Amino acid sequence: MTDARKRPRRSPKDYFEMDSKPLAFPHLRVLPIIGQALPEMRRPSLLLALCALLLHPFTLPAQELLTLRDAILKAGTDLAPERLKGLQWIEGEAAYSYVDGERLMRATPGKAMERPLVDLATLNALLPDSMALRGIPAVQWEAPTRFRFWHRGGLYGFDLGSGELKQRLALPKGAANMDLQAASGRVAYTLENDLYVAAPDQKPLRITTDGREGIVNGQAVHRQEYGITKGTFWSPDGRQLAFYRMDETMVTSYQLEDVASKPSTFNAIRYPMAGQRSHHVSVGVYDLERNNTTFLRTGEPLDQYLTNISWSADGRFIHAVHLDRKTENLRLVRYDAATGEALATLLTEHDGIYLEPEHPAHFLKTRPGQYIWWSERDGWQHLYLYDVKRGLVRQLTKGNWVVKDLLGMDPKESYVVVEGSDVIRKDDPSGARNTHLYRVDLASGKTTRLTEQPGSHHGSLSSDGSLLLDTWSSTKVPNSSEIIDVRSGKVLRTLLTASDPFSSRKVGTIELLTIPGERGDLLNARLIRPSFFDPKERYPVLIYVYNGPHVQLVNESFLGGASPWMLEAAERGYLVWTVDGHGSAYRGRDFEQAVHRQLGVVEVNDQLRGVEYLEQLPFVDGDRIGVHGWSFGGHMTTAMLLRHPGTFRVGVAGGPVMDWSRYEVMYTERYMDTPEENPEGYATTDLTKLAATLQEDLLLITGGQDDVVLPQHSYAFIKACVDAGVQVDLFNYPGHGHNVRGKDRLHLMEKVLRYMDQRLLLMR
Fold first, then answer.
1. Which residues form the catalytic set?
2. Whole-prediction pTM value?
3. Distance (Å, rounded) from C-alpha 349 to C-alpha 341?
């Protein structure tokens, strides 16, 4: 038994009692510890000591305990760093706006003078009582004196000069996937599986009529991979609307049970699994002046992927990336928007492992024949300048770093402003944890970093391209908003420096570090210690894992990328540990492609290197390590227990992929190829085949309506465990999809952490 005087340690029993019945004086948790620390003291003496503590409040902890309820339900409110709500540039001038309480404010970078533009009472006075706003809405600026906003399915415009508020259009109930074209004021939207267009003072126009179960118009396709986030694409002048049409009738139907009905019913979805028949996608172009639709003649094979739709600046041409189902070859094809004829293949790329085009070609307005293209061809995500006739003009960005986002250009299009990582070195991968802002000159490719402080910087470019709103955080800065001069990188004004929302809470420390990983690479990791950490003691470890493609868990931002519940978990007595292994984002092509054809194998080895690192630390109890993850992390959690029995004591796998042949076609075949092409890889990574090796306690959690990782994954694994005579636990969240959202998320995390506590804290 360790000396309890060293720290105010909290037991799981304390936690359970606290959440079920909040304590009025949480600091009095020190009392049982004082009693343990002074066993030789008689009762009167102990009472005198307690009275002395109560009479001298300065001896009591000033910080309150972080509860799991607050960590979950207040993560985006009280426990989020202060920010300037609605901070954005005003279109057409070098001024910005933000929301201050019930007022919309205007300010300029070089002056401290700020003034209100409109308040909530003024807006509500112009609306019927039944349509009253609860707060200043999310506005979009159209001009220095005019903005628009959505409210209860209606689009409103407000003019600051006249003080007039006008409803421009109202969408019918059930409208979804709204896409506004600012120049024309038209809005594309879907009802069920058909596409419509609404315009001010006009009746809605129905664009498609064939939508039904299995035929989807105007929505994201290909299961939203390759940067596809929507299904409609307006031409620059708003006269034409390109849209996806997806035919899923050939795809296998999957039934998800709805237990809310009596008796239960089933909702059918189309779910193409790896190696099975996939959907067919086409691209239509509706001309609003001619009132007709022309489909692009994209040719065969019909199950190719059509991604990254973009228009030329003059609206004459539309472009699509053709990616073969093997995801090894792509073509950027130019089409005549009026006829649908393919005019030219502008570029091609090949990668024998896989390609992941996620960004459309960005065509320039001042030089219509040129465009910016994203590619990982040199091993890192970079920008290239192309000419339609001459081909490659120059590579714009270079080096061991990745471009993450394109923020915009100056009106003359002489430079582009981007977000990107810092330089990533073989002996120091910490650059991947940072996001900086850069100016890239198109004439030379000269790249200038505009931000200095380590952290995650996210920018918004003014309409004249001269200024940036930089909102950023780091492990030392909870949140800061600054205005940066794009030419010099100089900070012109600091708008906000937020305080730490956890300063009044008793929480531990967060450390970002690098550790040796598989294949000799260094990996980024994060360690959270409790506030009462004592290096002379030994603590259990809770590993939180994802380690899948396109996700980075460890970064230089507020809390180091951790969620508040991890801080609460640390206060229970855990060390909370996370590693970004091979396959995770922003480490370059080779690092990410290391997982090809064996998802979850190299990644598990990386996680074991993390365990080896932990076990070398004198304050880690290597006999008490648990692991938790969701989705890909659920696969990893299960795989870690099955492939390394005896290493961990407990696992909680949420929404886990158990057999990649049961996962959807586009994601799986990119990383695994088809089951026919890679039978050994699919067999090796099929966790149902390893069920007999399970030795530790494992809890599976699935959503009853999960249409991403189907509940069948968990059920198949349970069946394998039953066949092998192995015990496993299951919890189902009826009605929930791939994750548990809203108030039920508190129930989820209580479930996860209690399962851990019972095996890592209560069992020694």
1. 631, 706, 738
2. 0.90
3. 22
